[in-house]
Amino acid sequence: MEETLKELIRRIESAAIPESDKIHLYLEIRYALQAAVTPVIVSHLPKEQVQSLVKNLSSVTLDGYITLLSAAIHKEGVLEEIEESMREVLDEIGKALTESGV
């Protein structure tokens, strides 16, 4: 996946397009990856902890939030699921760049 991302960056950097368009493409990649990863993580959040936090939102701290996300990410198979989701997004972005001549 890292090589795919590096290749997309290389293609964008070498494209004969304005710098502002390149920045826009990088932002789109960022948002697409975030949109792909967030649902995977949310689907694996420990439900009991989420329910507890929802009942008392004023008790939410940065450390608590990090602990909650870490619990989801460290479940078996979650990192692989995240990687697969990211790979699919990067593949689609690569196809879109090819279609647009980048």
Q: How would you describe this protein?
A:
This protein has 102 residues and is mostly helical. The protein has one domain. Helices cover 79% and strands 0% of the residues. The protein is elongated and about 50 Å long. The protein starts with a helix and ends with a helix. The model has no long low-confidence stretch (mean pLDDT 93).
Write the topology of this structure:
Elements: H1 2-14, H2 19-43, H3 47-55, H4 62-73, H5 78-99
Q: Specify Rg, calculated over alpha carbons.
A: 18 Å
Report the uncertain regions.
none
DSSP helix fraction:
over 70%
Structural classification: mainly alpha
The portion of residues forming beta strands comes to under 5%
Average predicted confidence as pLDDT: 93
Primary descriptors:
single chain; 102 residues; mainly alpha; 5 helices; 0% strand
Give a summary of the structure in a few sentences:
With 102 residues, the chain is an all-alpha fold. The protein has helices at 2-14, 19-43, 47-55, 62-73, 78-99.
